[in-house]
# Entry
Amino acid sequence: MSIGTAVAALPAGTVGTAVATLPAGTVGTAVAALPAGTVGTAVATLPAGTVGTAVGIVAAVLSTSVRQWVATAAVLFGVVAASFGIRQVGRWLRSEYDPRGSTLEAVQAALIVALAAGATAAVLLIWGENDIGAALAGALEPEPSTVIRLLVTFFLLLGAWGATVFVERVISVVAAENDALTRHQQEVGYNVAKVGLYLLAVVAAVAAWGIKIGDVLLGAGFLSVVLGLAARQTLASVLAGFILLFGRPFDIGDWIVVDDQEGVITDVSIFNTELRTVNGEFVVIPNDVVTNTSLVNRSRRGRLRVDVEVGVDYDTDLDRARELATEAVADRAGDVIQEVPEPKTVLVRFGDSAVVLETRFWIDDPSAERRWEAQTQAVTAIRQAFEAAEITIPFPQRTLNQRLSEDPEDER
# Structure
């Protein structure tokens, strides 16, 4: 008995594989007629009893479907990227022009629906459904079992969405009653719950359609390779987002400096971190940039040291000047400047026209506004103290010397 299988006349656009004449007792596979530019592989005369039995079949299947799977993965990646872009642009427009965001949300929803419809049509074309109208008509007249599965899938996803809304509400209530639960911890709990709930819904939906989880994982592995190569930056931001959520290098409301940007954290998502700068601008920084850059958290300890420099004349009694500067700042201690640690004045360097002193003091609950206020109070107090003690704060001076010539004619 022979399995005598022949696979021929593959349509244009394939790798032109022909598998023919499998003799009895052997796999005798031949892959031939590969056009120029392909791998040009020939597999022949595989002996009986080896694992090479399925080589011919695999070659034929891959020749027709690999590019379709890659194209499908590309469409999926495009949908994800476009949805992310719509979300980011909408957030920026909302902050600039529409604080309530009702109009923008409607526009975003319409764009995403149109995007999903376009992606569906593209997938149908990729898999050979050239007559999209017929395919949609067939979808509108499904079998009863298909309708039930669609309804189950819809209600599972709807239930997952409702559960995430409920979890977010519970976390907000608990946070309002418990001051120990920070905004950062709320974000972590909500994001973890959302991912877990939607993952359970997807697994249940897959099971409802009779698809084996192992097959899904195999396909997910293939797609992960494709998406990993095409979206390395986005995936890096997502992984960095979870690192920030769990590692907690800062909390919402902290004053930080990262990647030459300084401001207060307003939001941390799995994709990016938002800052409000001292100028009132909103800056969005990808999470992978945050994790790969040196970060300064000025709010971490709950206090911050502020330094103010002042120069005095070289003829000044430096010990007296240090004492006056320290006392002047200490007298302003109260709402902004802290009494403990006590202010301290040190000599830092020789300037061109002055000896430079630096007065150091601390503020609590640090922010850019409180630092500016503390610096203003310290400069005002030191200046008034020096004026009362008649200590000169010199300005840069330059001495000019003229060389006199011995020839009277040159002097004229």
Remarks:
- The longest strand covers residues 303-312.
- The chain is about 50% helix and 15% strand.
